[in-house]
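Give me the fold.
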Amino acid sequence: MIDTPDGDVPYQPWARERQQFLLKNYFEPTKPEFIDPQQLCLPLGAVRQLTWHDVQISQYPGYVVLEHEGGHVFQIVPLDGRPHIPSDIKLWMGDSRGRWEGNTLVIDVTNSNSKGRLSRSGDFASDKVHNTVRIKFLDANNARYEARL
């Protein structure tokens, strides 16, 4: 895990080049790869989806479900300790597994198809990304969100 002083994604040189290439072509896209998934009403990925739209979080026996308003995306998070799905299966929202640490929901996400983006400025993650989301419930209507890639 790397925490950068400026909060920017610490890209490897090849990835920074791709991010800059995506950003350069964002406003006048000439290929489908330049179009942000948000503009196509596609899921944004497990990290960005939570930062962009309202979300309703519901708990059921053995599961937590995140119902994202934007794009009507659902993220089903099993809480029973089962293993992740095989690594050759890639999903828009990745494969989530969760657990409670007090009043914090910790979600471990793997198996992203890497079609979502982390931002409009071309920030992306490969299909090898493994991220941890922490949602700390402060009261009935407020939570603190943290994602680590």
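Helices lie at 13-24, 46-52.
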